[in-house]
Amino acid sequence: MSRAAVIVFPGSNCEHDAVSGLELAGASAELVWHTETDLSGYDLVVLPGGFAHGDYLRAGALARLSPIMDTVAAFAASGGPVVGICNGFQVLTEAGMLPGALQKNAHLKFHCKDSTLIVASSRSVLTRGVAVGTELSIPINHFSGSYVCDEATLQRLQDNDQVVLRYAENPNGSLDDIAGISNDAGNVVGLMPHPERACSALLGSTDGLVLLQAFVGAAVSA
Fold first, then answer.
1. CA–CA separation, 18 and 99 (whole Å)
2. Counts for the chain of helices (H) and strands (E), in that order
3. Is 145 helix (H, G, I), strand (E, B) or coil?
4. How confident is the model at residue 39 (pLDDT cuts 50, 70, 90)?
């Protein structure tokens, strides 16, 4: 069974949801405090949602300096699957592991609602084996979720098939309707929606399992 490390920063609040979702997807998941520097023995890494370090300065700006992040970067550089969800996506951009940035939503409104996502690429660890064009109902819960980058970066993302998920109806002003992207290798993914909150019919959708099962499966083939 694949072992997943769910990194916990001061202010994280979705770590237990992430553990639950990963376990439903078939992995063994454990919480790892941000001051740790050893990820040996883990096959997957998740940076969960929340407000790491209170989102002081900018969302994710302080979390990128946590001791664990050098280890996460090394894990990713070796091909290890890494996913950042919501605040975790913000941390990955601040750490330079993904291009671009997340800014405040259009109209400065906090959004907490279901969203329809469209799978835009099947080459990432989060969407491997999922048909392009698949629609998934997965909730969002953010204030700084509008993805931005310069024109050259957007062109590279599009040309290299790094746009992983798009919103069917853009809720936050994200460039190109982007809900999630990957690095060039496809093993690091950041997304604003919360697949771990869409793993049970009791919560309204099981579509999150489609992504988390792909992610857990990526550990086997990594």
1. 24
2. 5, 11
3. coil
4. very high
Whole-number Å distance between alpha carbons of 128 and 58: 31
- In whole angstroms, what is the distance from residue 151 CA to residue 154 CA? 5
Residue type, 113: K
Mean pLDDT of the chain: 94
Residue 24's DSSP bridge partners are: none
3-class DSSP state for residue 159?
Answer: helix
Residue length, the chain? 222
Give the number of domains in the chain. 1
- Which amino acid, 150? D
CATH code (residue 102): 3.40.50.880
- The residues assigned a catalytic role are 86, 194, 196
Global confidence as pTM: 0.95
- Cβ atoms of 72 and 187 closer than 8 Å: no
**Matching residue, tokens 């499966």:** 217
Nearest to 88 by CA among 105, 70, 65, 64: 64
Parent domain of 24: 3-221
**Tokens 């392009």, located at residue:** 132
